Amino acid sequence: MVRPRNPLNIGAAARAMANFGFHEMVAVSPYSPVWQETRSAVGAEEIVISARAVESLVEAIGDASVVVGTTAGSRRTLDRELIPLPDFPTWLQQRKVGGRVAVLFGSEKTGLSNEHLSYCHTLVRIPTAVGCPSMNLGQAVAVCGYELARAGLVPTHPLRLSVHQSDLASVQSLYHLFDRSARVLEQVGYLKPKSRRATLIKLRRLMLDLELTNHDARILGGILAQVEWKIGQGNSE
Amino acid sequence: MVRPRNPLNIGAAARAMANFGFHEMVAVSPYSPVWQETRSAVGAEEIVISARAVESLVEAIGDASVVVGTTAGSRRTLDRELIPLPDFPTWLQQRKVGGRVAVLFGSEKTGLSNEHLSYCHTLVRIPTAVGCPSMNLGQAVAVCGYELARAGLVPTHPLRLSVHQSDLASVQSLYHLFDRSARVLEQVGYLKPKSRRATLIKLRRLMLDLELTNHDARILGGILAQVEWKIGQGNSE
Fold first, then answer.
1. How far apart are CA B124 and CA A208, in angstroms?
2. 3-class DSSP state for residue B59?
3. Integer Cα distance of A140 and B42 in angstroms
């Protein structure tokens, strides 16, 4: 959950997770008083107690192989594929994901920002009514948990997801690669002040779409290191 | 919703209904202050404003052709068929229900009582984890709404349900029939004080299971009226 604002919602989300067999909750920069106020929801004491609060989204999802954003599908996200929630389990199974899957929920007021969405491999939309698209946070977690459990995709059934383990690079190593690429682009003057932010968001998305394996990531990392070295040499000459 | 206790939950349930295209909410004997306190949930103003509060379950579901109870599937209901929620749309479609379907949710604390359950044609269970089976009321409504909308079974798609209209007797007319039967059983001395309540619950269930048409109900009603008349004659002789 990114920047959750309401302690009741955090408790409700924890309970919904417990209802459907999910255990690990991470809050990204929750408002501090909110986080302090969060009380254990019925049957979800363990989840709330073991929940982590972290400062950045990257910290929260670093060890995931796939990051999925949830959205009501407002205009700003229309340039990206939106998977309807009922099709999400199939999408996940077809990707043969070996590692962990992170599902992101935005704040009650604003949802996930474009910046947050750029960290996502794909976006999932709960098919809500046109007249009332935006769901309550705890209820959105409940519905997503239900759909995943319905397809048997809960952490207590790890086999379902890991039968066809691929060697997909972890998000963490992709971020290292991304940071390195951004540095190189900076050094070669590719990033213009005005479009810098948008360019980096596009680059991150591109990098996720490539579905790099760990092997790919190592090779690309090596290339980038070499480029950096060369540029550094040129500068010092 | 039968005896809802928490105004936040009522508002949350209304919002979930709006999210998935449902409109009509009825509260059966809500605690009065609770009902007064209920505030419109985001996007669900119409539902909350038009929601009815009634005294008895029969008033709430009188015009439905099918009544479905939701339950966490605790021991007391194990003697009845429990349909897992993912299978519920298929069950509904196979019955070729022509009229309205009422879905009952019990109070947060106790769920639906055996008395309430005896009014249900069938029971639906949300497949929750063994360690945390009981769902928050608003989240249970959200998940049920999602599953029904997922199958296209929302009131805005009435055709899906009414393509194969059957002439199934309304719950209201079944209750009239049931009251008449109970009166006759009383008069012939079939009901013993000790087992009276349990017998009537069984009778109600049996009557629902028969899936009587309106035609059947009229014939049976006529027979019962005749029996009553005869008994009355015997008494006055």
1. 41
2. helix
3. 14
Indicate if the pLDDT at residue A236 is higher than 70: no
- Residue in chain A lying closest to B126 (CA): A146
- Closest CA of chain B from A186, distance in Å: 45
Domain A171-236 in CATH 1.10.8? The answer is yes
Judge if pTM exceeds 0.90.
no
A66 in helix, strand or coil?
Answer: strand
pLDDT digits (tens, 9 = 90+) for A179-216: 888 888 888 888 888 888 888 888 887 787 777 777 78
Domain ranges of chain A: 7-162, 171-236
Contact A136 B42 (CB under 8 A): yes
> Do residues A132 and B23 make contact, with C-beta atoms less than 8 angstroms apart?
no
Interface ipTM above 0.85: no
Question: Which residues have C-beta within 8 Å of that of residue A222, sequence separation ≥ 6?
Answer: none
Chain B CB contacts of A143 under 8 Å are 142-143, 146
Listed by number, the residues of chain A in 25-84 with a beta carbon closer than 8 Å to a beta carbon of chain B are: 41-44
Distance from CA of A71 to the nearest CA of B (A): 13
Q: Which residue do the tokens 């959105």 mark?
A: A140
* Rounded-to-integer distance, Cα A190 and Cα A199, Å: 9
What is the second-level CATH architecture of the domain B7-162? 3-Layer(aba) Sandwich (3.40)
* Element spanning B36, H or E: helix B32-37
Within 8 A of B18 by CB-CB distance, chain A residues are: 129, 131-132
pLDDT value of position A96: 67
pLDDT-derived band at A38 (thresholds 50, 70, 90) equals confident
Q: Encode pLDDT of A70-105 as tens digits.
A: 988 665 555 677 899 999 999 988 876 677 899 999
Closest Cα partner for A146 from A98, A192, A88? A88
For residue A151, what is the nearest residue in chain B, using CA coordinates?
A: B86
| Residue linked to tokens 């029939």 | B177
* For chain A, percent of residues with pLDDT exceeding 70: 89
Which residues does chain A have within 8 Å of residue B129's beta carbon, measured at their own beta carbons?
18-21, 149
Confidence of residue A158 (pLDDT cuts 50, 70, 90): very low
Dihedral pair phi/psi, residue B69, rounded to 5°: -95, 145
User: Residue B109 burial by CB count (10 A; 0-12/13-18/19+): exposed, middle or buried?
Assistant: exposed
The verdict on B135 touching A (C-beta cutoff 8 Å) is yes
Contacts across the A-B interface (CB distance below 8 Å): 98
